[in-house]
Amino acid sequence: MNRQRIGIGISEFEDLRREGCLFVDKSLLIEEVIETGTKIILLPRPRRFGKTMSLTMLRAFFERREDETAREEAARLFDGLAIRQSPVFAEHFGRYPVIFLTFKDVKERDFDAAMFVLRRLLRNEVARHVEDGVPDRSWAEPLARVVEATDERGYYRESLKALSRFLHERCGVPPVILIDEYDTPVHTSWQYGYYEEMIGFLRGLLTAVLKDNPHVAKGVLTGILRVAKESIFSDLNNLGVYTILERPFSDKFGLTREEVMAVLTTCGLAHRMDEVDAWYNGYDFGGHVIFNPWSILNFVNENPDMPQPYWANTSSNALIRDLIVEGGIEVRQQIERLIAGETVESVIDRNIVFPDLEK
Question: CA–CA distance from 215 to each of 109, 160, 175, 219, 345 (Å)?
Answer without folding.
Answer: 35, 10, 7, 11, 44
